[in-house]
Write a structure and sequence with these properties.
By secondary structure, this protein is α+β, with helices and mostly antiparallel strands. Helices cover about 40% and strands about 10% of the residues. α2 crosses α3, α5 runs parallel beside α27 and α23 packs parallel to α26. The N and C termini lie far apart (about 75 Å). The protein has a seven-stranded mixed β-sheet with strand order 19-18-17-20-23-22-21. A four-stranded antiparallel β-sheet has the order 5-2-14-10, with no helix packed on it.
Length: about 800
């Protein structure tokens, strides 16, 4: 027989509803908060306001989780996913409510996993997911619901856990159609943060999670720093080390169970639950459906009722775990695994004037940076910024190599030691520890700033053309840091344990860093470490996505052109470090007929070129595997590029056809339904413009700081990029494109009056698909590992067509 499809989906499980039965009844009083509904034709239909129903008829909806393939309906979400979660959740809720220490210990993880699923599986929760993604299908919605589960568990587990009793009250707790409720006294129900389907973010210090376990027990989760110091915190600020899906270690038996609520206090909780419900609530007694008739306080008064006060000693403190190999795991009360916050914390600026440097460390004036942003939407002011850390690293590297005490770059190339390499990477690791909250440090979207993020590999031989030179036309650029973090590399390959293997790469990384330093200082270039360094779950997600994307892909010879060019260049330098006898043998293998005198001439020429090459290490290559050189080229992959672009309001650009194809093939830009024909005249007009690129650092910086020839062009491009967000106005851009062409030609003529070899020509090819470069999996990364409040579609991408002759 064919299995019957389950289409009646309970978003609040029947077993959970039964926990709210009262006086041996087997039904609940079910209140419809919106009994009158208006149809599209204007007619109004009315439903019964209060009904007495069994759990099978409450909190359910037809086909809420059902997916469809053609005419075939599928109920696997209801049967397999929800069924398994509910089975474990029922046991966990009973254990947490009952309080048996052994049962509570084993129930902690399944309990929070059930809670998180319960928060997302309701109509309100599903609508919240939809609000974070553009145009989800039903199947995509179900995929994202599964993908987002467990995103809140870490911060919940790290909070103060208190279970309140209503046993002494004649009023009991109610159940709603959105049982996992978030309360923050700073956001009353009428505030924008509470506009349906929104809730205050749990990462905010003043946000508390309220979840009724049954009619007599209610769980309240409170952020630790709020519970310990409720009168001296900013309710809307982010809690310390706020993160989704991070790893943590907590006491499983820590619950406060001493408070018993009065009738008025239970009514206050019910009032909160009812105000944050969507459409239905239920209770074991009809009178409990109207808590507003019993609770006389206002929204802010609930704060004092929810705050725990006793037995806070169970929470917080430091944890040390020793392992057999002698290593030690450390964690503080906020889940931080290092003491970096002590030395990376800076004194918060106060009384900042409009023309003062902004407290976020961007290097910009306050009035042009954070002045008009709410505090919770700013980059953090409490720890050193990305820019400040990069500048600290620049100073440290100069000190380690002696460049600040008279040594020349040639001295560095001759004298670079293993200890110097080790110290450089130790310094980098200390500035970017594992518990870095990278999302809180990123620059925020700004319509007055054109910001591009480079999709490709970072290298000192190409950065002048594909990054620095673009600063003539773009306000800011985001690049990946070339340095690897030693905290994530096994000792066999780590630059702090096997330093000799990293000498050549370190030399290149340092010259790249110092080349970029003036632009970092000016706030034009943001050098960002890999975000996956700071969250193992994010790393696993990104690697899995990249593996799926590249499963059936093989790079072509054209795809590998730039990589091959760089590899051959590196091979030439390595060859020059070989002993002369080995060099002679290699040359004879290439050409057995080569005369000895010609070999000597070739070797002399190569030696001269090697000494003149600033990227060449002037040390003979020593024998042995320990001295073999590791080549580690850093770059953001497609998923991380889109992740960072969505958080920073950047457009994506690349100079590699491989990345350009992947941008279009693995996002919605490549779907059959997409068409950018209306933009073709604009994009073709821009592509026809020849943009001169100035890659002389000093000349470019002088032009930027004096507003030179390029200031008007940058403002024009910024306006163009903003207007490209509107699908209805491509024709309005034509005059702007004409003006851009004229301005570029005038600048080129001006530059030609001062002949220079530091200029090359490029073309900008823009792509503006109607749905942008959107990808649900990347959007999920932003929601779970970034900032869920402000998510930007990446609407534009740009391909650089660079002259074949690259600067060296």
């Amino acid at each position: 027989m064919t299995q019957q499809i389950s289409r009646k989906n309970h978003y609040v499980p029947k077993w959970y509803q039964r926990r709210f039965f009262s006086n041996n009844r087997n039904k609940l009083f079910y209140l419809n908060l919106a009994p009158h509904a208006q149809l599209p034709d204007g007619r109004v239909i009315s439903h019964r306001e209060v009904s007495q129903l069994s759990p099978s008829s409450c909190f359910c909806e037809q086909d809420l989780y059902t997916t469809q393939f053609g005419e075939i309906l599928n109920d696997e979400i209801e049967r397999l996913l929800m069924g398994a979660i509910d089975n474990e959740g029922a046991k966990a809720v009973s254990a947490i409510s009952g309080g048996n220490p052994s049962a509570v210990h084993h129930a902690l993880q399944p309990f929070f996993e059930y809670m998180d699923t319960q928060k997302l599986r309701t109509p309100k929760g599903l609508d919240w997911i939809k609000s974070k993604y553009p145009g989800l299908t039903q199947l995509e919605l179900m995929v994202e619901m599964q993908g987002l589960r467990q995103m809140h568990c870490t911060m919940w587990a790290e909070g103060v856990r208190e279970i309140i009793s209503a046993e002494d009250s004649d009023v009991k707790f109610i159940v709603t159609d959105h049982p996992v409720t978030i309360y923050n006294a700073a956001f009353p129900p009428e505030s924008p943060a509470c506009t349906y389907p929104g809730d205050p973010l749990i990462e905010l210090i003043g946000s508390q999670t309220v979840f009724a376990l049954d009619e007599n027990h209610c769980l309240i989760l409170t952020n630790l720093e709020y519970a310990k110091n409720p009168d001296d915190v900013e309710l809307t600020a982010r809690r310390t080390n706020a993160r989704y899906r991070g790893q943590s270690m907590v006491r499983t038996d820590a619950y406060i169970r001493t408070r018993k609520f009065s009738r008025n206090e239970v009514s206050a909780i019910n009032y909160l639950l009812k105000r944050r419900a969507h459409k239905f609530i239920a209770a074991g007694n009809k009178d409990w459906l109207y808590p507003e008739q019993h609770f006389s306080g206002d929204w802010g008064a609930i704060r004092k009722i929810l705050l725990p006060s006793d037995e806070l000693w169970q929470f917080g403190g430091e944890i040390y775990v020793g392992y057999k190999d002698g290593s030690v795991y450390y964690q503080d009360e906020f889940g931080r695994t290092s003491g970096s916050h002590k030395y990376l914390q800076k004194k918060r600026k106060t009384n900042v004037g409009p023309n003062d440097f902004c407290g976020c460390g961007s290097g910009r004036k306050y009035m042009k940076c954070c002045q008009d942003r709410p505090e919770q939407d700013r980059p953090t002011w409490d720890v050193y910024s990305i820019r400040e850390r990069n500048l600290m690293f620049c100073r440290a590297v100069k000190g380690i190599l002696g460049l600040d005490s008279g040594k020349t770059w040639e001295n560095v190339r001759r004298d670079l030691s293993d200890d110097q390499v080790k110290e450089i990477y130790e310094t980098f690791g200390s500035l970017w520890p594992k518990d870095t909250e990278i999302a809180s440090l990123l620059p925020r979207p700004d319509p007055n700033i054109s910001r591009g993020i480079y999709l490709g590999t970072i290298d000192p031989r190409t950065v002048a053309a594909n990054a620095i030179g673009l600063l003539t036309y773009i306000n800011e650029i985001i690049l990946p840091s070339p340095f690897i973090n030693p905290a994530y590399i096994s000792s066999e390959y780590s630059p702090t344990h096997s330093s000799a293997q990293h000498k050549e790469q370190t030399l290149k990384n340092v010259i790249l860093l110092l080349t970029l330093e003036p632009f970092i200082h000016a706030g034009m270039i943001h050098l960002i470490p890999d975000p996956t360094d700071f969250n193992e779950e994010l790393r696993r997600n990104v690697w899995s996505m990249a593996e799926g994307r590249n499963k059936n892909w093989e790079p072509s010879e054209e795809d590998m052109q730039q990589f091959n060019y760089l590899n051959k260049d590196d091979l030439k330098r390595s060859f020059c470090r070989l002993p002369e006898q080995s060099q002679r043998q290699q040359l004879r293998q290439i050409d057995p007929d080569m005369k000895d005198d010609l070999i000597e001439q070739v070797l002399a020429l190569m030696k001269k070129q090697h000494e003149e090459d600033p990227l060449a290490l002037l040390q003979p290559m020593e024998l042995g595997q320990d001295n073999a050189q590791l080549k580690i080229i850093k770059g953001f992959n497609l998923e991380i590029t889109l992740f960072l672009a969505g958080l920073t309001g950047s457009f994506v650009y690349t100079d590699t056809l491989l990345h350009w194809r992947h941008l279009h093939e693995h996002t919605r830009a490549g779907s059959a339904a997409q068409s950018n024909a209306s933009w073709s005249p604009v994009t073709e007009a821009i592509k026809s413009i020849i943009f001169p690129i100035q890659y002389d650092d000093n000349k470019l910086m002088e032009d930027r700081l004096t507003s030179g020839q390029s200031g008007y062009i940058r403002s024009l491009i910024t306006r163009l990029l903003c207007l490209m967000l509107d699908d209805d106005i491509p024709t309005r851009l034509n005059p702007m494109v004409t003006g851009l062409d004229s301005s570029v030609k005038r600048m080129k003529i001006k530059w030609q009056e001062q002949p220079s070899e530091s200029v090359l020509d490029v073309q900008f090819e823009f792509s503006v698909p109607p749905a942008g470069f959107e990808d649900n999996a990347v959007r999920r990364l932003i929601v779970t590992f970034g900032r869920a409040k402000d998510i930007r579609i990446v609407p534009i991408a740009m391909l650089l067509h660079i002259n074949e002759q690259r600067p060296s």
